[in-house]
Amino acid sequence: MKTGLGKELFVDIMAGYILNEDIKVQKIALDQNFVIFRSGLDIIQMSDFPKNLNGSTKVGKFTPADDEVIELNWNNLIRETKIIEKAAIKELFEVEKKDKVLGLKMNVLGYYMAQGLPDIRLATEVIHRARIVLCARKGEFTAEENKIIIQFVEAEGKKWSKLANLLARTQPGVIKRRHETLTGDIKEVNVGYTVEEDKIVLTEVFSVNRSILKNGQIKIGQFKKIGAKLERPHFNVYQHWKQVLEPMLLRHHAGTLHVDVRTLLVDYLVEQNLNFSQDIEWRELSKLPQFAGTTPRLLQSLFNSLKSKTSNKFPEKSKGELTTESVERYMDRRDTSEVTEKLTASNKDKREENQKQLINFYVTNIEGQKASK
């Protein structure tokens, strides 16, 4: 490849520097020098990988620590080659070319950026992950993005993947929900649910499927009617059911409503050395006896909430340093001042009172009706 490299393209300059460095690469990764093309920030799917992939190779589920390693290697490459980063990103990641030779050159960069990762990775997936790490927008939508969303849908329709790529966002579903929020007569998503609203959700959900706690069968689309009643985005109502109401009822039946799931969860993850959400098989975790009555979605939601609070408590820590041990330290050091304890106790009492009302409503109006039939 060295003899075929020019001096005009950034990819040639970078690949030439890497090849001259003669870095060590995992032989398994080098033997699997595949090229997979993806448009924009679309994530590579399992079906895109070769069927004869070596079992030692890890695909998908990059952790925050993995992303930091990739970005660190990228920064080192930019520094050593003395290339202007913005120009390099534009050439390498913003222009779509399905060229096999170019793909192999990009793989050289992928092998370089894979240095220091804890798992064997395909170079083609590492370079695509670098595209996401370096180019994807995160956080709240800006006023300009909101304007683009409205204008795009009016002009081209609901092409969410295309719109996500236009906005440099990785999740088309989030763009879809943002459009619904911008165009619908709905309440803000962050406004908490009242007990009366929860009663409406319970009534409507069980009218759709009386056995939902046994089979869990309900589609997001079936929440459109409920969302309209509550003047909320239907996806937000679905999330509230899956993360709050369904787990509450399951734990009620399992007799574990009184259990502090958060402490159990963090203790278990630390003991098993599971540091990031991407390391955890949430479905299997929810099946363990100590988590009886929980759901994968509830456990993941609790963990993400704790990580967010840990990040606020320790702002000096990078995402790669926010491991479960950091979460454990946050829980050990939570504010125990008198004012905070009183406020926490008050919130807990209110939450338990609301929960009690909802359980009574469920037992009387839903279980009672089921029994009478």
Describe the structure.
- This protein is mainly alpha-helical.
- It folds into 3 domains: 2-135, no CATH class; 143-183; 195-334, no CATH class.
- Helix content is 61%, strand content 0%.
- Helix 5 packs across helix 6 (123-135) and helix 7 (143-156) crosses helix 9 (172-183).
- The mean pLDDT is 87.
Estimated structural class: mainly alpha
- Rg of Cα set: 25 Å
What is the averaged pLDDT score?
Answer: 87
Q: So how many helices? A: 18
Shape: globular
- Unreliable segments (pLDDT under 50, ≥5 consecutive)? none
Count of individual beta strands = 0
Task: For the record, give the distance between the C-alpha atoms at the N and C termini, rounded to a whole number.
Answer: 75 Å
Our count of domains comes out at 3
**What fraction, in percent, of the residue positions are helical?**
55-70%
What's the SSE pattern? HHHHHHHHHHHHHHHHHH
What's the main sheet like?
none
Percent of residues in beta strands? Answer: under 5%
What is the secondary structure topology, with strand pairs?
Blueprint: H1 10-21, H2 27-31, H3 64-81, H4 85-93, H5 100-113, H6 123-135, H7 143-156, H8 160-167, H9 172-183, H10 195-208, H11 212-215, H12 224-230, H13 234-254, H14 261-271, H15 282-286, H16 296-313, H17 324-332, H18 338-372
Helix pairs in contact: 1-3, 1-5, 3-6, 5-6, 7-9, 8-9, 10-18, 12-13, 14-16, 14-17, 16-17
State the gist of this model.
This protein is mostly helical. Helices cover 61% and strands 0% of the residues. It has 3 domains: 2-135, no CATH class; 143-183; 195-334, no CATH class.
